[in-house]
Task: structure prediction
Amino acid sequence: MKRTVAIITALVLCLCVLPMAAFAADDVTLYLKPNDNWLKDGARFAAYTWDIGEAWFDLTDSDNDGYYEVKVPANIKNIIFCRMNPNASANNWNNKWNQTSDLVIPADGGNCYTVAEGTWDKGNGKWSVFGSTAPSEPEPEPDPVYVVAGSAGLCGSEWNGSDANNQMTKNDDGTYTKTYKNVPAGTYEFKIVLNGGIWIPDGMGNNQIIQTATAGDVTITFNPADNSITVTATGAPTEDRYVVAGSAGLCGSEWAAADEANLMTETSDGVYAITYKNVAAGEYELKVVKNGTEWIGGSDGNNVVVTVSKACDVTVTYSEETGIVVTGEHLGAPEDDTPTEDTPSTGDTPTTGDTTLFALSALMVLSTAAVVLLKKKEF
Result:
């Protein structure tokens, strides 16, 4: 009897120990590499799975290498890593601060998940194989591509934001440059284009302008930190150039700072002017552009508004002392050309005063006649 009990006891022990040993042998270790955000405030970490019912597992960094590990059953395929409240020991959603997306453990042996830098919840992290070397970080973002797009005389193609021939080169200081060799004399416009789709104008939303008096090299430098653009040109004019840009009805072109037809002439020292002939009646706006880049408005910085009441010549004058001055024979509110009615002469038509006096006189005559008739009736 005792022998039978001993045999049964041994069998029970075998049945209990063998599955546990098998379960332990089938455990796998997963690793978590938190980013700087997740490491803040002393957070702890846990893993959640729903493959074996809802189950939570604590992660620990036993060797202080920055990687947190956890043993889980090998049959787990889905997992969520969570950043937990360190002041609460229970693992549940109420104590969760942040989490990854629903993750699938890779079948290719990937066992270490790195949380993408800068993210808090459900960021685009990356699986890798944990080994003697640290798992690779997420691939860095590619450098942006900046292209100069503008006048064909400068760029070789007309306003093409994806022309690889106009791609700018990144410098060590983070700026980008593009140099054009032996550019003919002239006026050119351009913008910087980011990744083929984002057009970057100057600070006022206008095209950048390059003016050259002689042929030479042109270098364009762009600073992504503040979107500033600088241009150097060996053939740049040595004297200031002023161009009127504004409404097409006045200037012939619509706000074209590169239109040489609107180049102002220096009429005296520091005074520049241009006259537009026979400008039709209407309202126009304009600014003066200095050296293709500096847009000069009225005293308030806004567009100068010109109202022409009747067709006439219009002259725009600019100097640093006076600012923009616009003159013309018929400027201002529209003139009233409606003919006035002739006033009749005194002899032709009685005035209101004369009519009233005539009526009073007639009334007095009638009253007198009535009195006379009454007296005759008494006799």
Remarks:
- The chain has three domains: 2-128, 146-233, 242-328.
- The mean pLDDT is 83.
- The longest strand covers residues 186-194.
- The chain is about 15% helix and 35% strand.
